[in-house]
Every structure is written in C-alpha cells, then in structure tokens.
Amino acid sequence: MTIDVLKGRMPDYAKDVKLNLSSLANDESLSDQQKWGTFLASALATRQADVIALIEEEAADNLSADALNAAKAAAAIMAQNNVYYRFVHLASNKEYGTLPAKLRMNIMGNPGVDKGDFELWSLAVSAINGCGMCIDAHEAELKKAGFSSEQIQTSVRIAATVAAAAAVVDGEQAAQVEIAQAA
Prior knowledge:
- The protein has helices at 2-8, 15-25, 32-46, 49-60, 65-90, 106-109, 115-129, 132-144, 149-182.
- It is an all-alpha fold.
- The chain has a single domain, classed as AhpD-like, CATH 1.20.1290.
- It starts with a helix and ends with a helix.
- The relative contact order is 0.17.
C-alpha cells in the first residue's frame, strides 16, 4: 500500500499523523469511494507533489476512473470557489454577496459520481482551504443527502491528517535542502 510509504515518511515527531493515516485508511464509516475520494481531493488541495503521487496511486486502486476524475474535479473547482467565496464572506462590502459569481461551476451539477460523494470531497477541500462559507454550504447539502455528522467529521479528519502529512513532508524536504546547502 502506498499509504504505508507515506506513513514511512513520517519522522518520530509526527507519530500521531502516522497513526491517524492508518486509522483513517481503515475507517469504515465511509464507503471506499467516499474515503479514497476524500483522501485524493485533500492531497490535491495540499499541493504537495509527493503526497499527491502516493495518495493518487492508492486511490486509483480503490476508485473507478469516473470517481478518480470527480475527486480531482472537486479539488479543482474548490480551488477556485474557496478563493471567491472566502472573499465574498470576508469582504466588508456585503454588496459582493448579492452579485452573481459569473464563474463556471458545471461540474458541481453533474460530477459523474454520486452528488453526495462529490459534496463530501468538496467539503474536505474547503476545510483545507479555510472557506467558512463553502464549509457551511457543503455541510448543509451533505445533511440533506442523509450523511451523518460522523461521516462528515470523518471527511474533515481525513483532510486534516492529509494536510498535516503534507506539512511534515514539506518541512522535512526543506530541512534537507538547508543541510545540503550548508555542506
């Protein structure tokens, strides 16, 4: 399992991250499609190349081609929407909230997989990107679709753990560059 390779990249100080990767990879509160789509969308949201590659390889073993594409699409559209809607939410001038976004978001209406799964992945990416307006919107859609609070929380736990793993990998790579430059 490539998730094991990622866990192997976690130094001793990141033991909790390593343990969380294990427990979440084995979590049964989400279907495999929901779980591995969340892992992949979250990895893409971190922008950490090694984490993306390792998780995408694992996800490819657990997702159909359509689900793999949809998880990537969730990360892509949320990269756009999280910036826009975070601006709308944070801007002092509330007029922006009354204006149409005028951004193409067709994938959200027809993601090629179960709409609830796509919403779950979008929520995870929104949590990583820190868009409160998007988090609220996706959580409400998930509740309407019948997702439990535990399932919703699990998607965000995956996002948090993948983001932490990416931060550790980035930090370790930066330290190695520093050591090499100092030599």
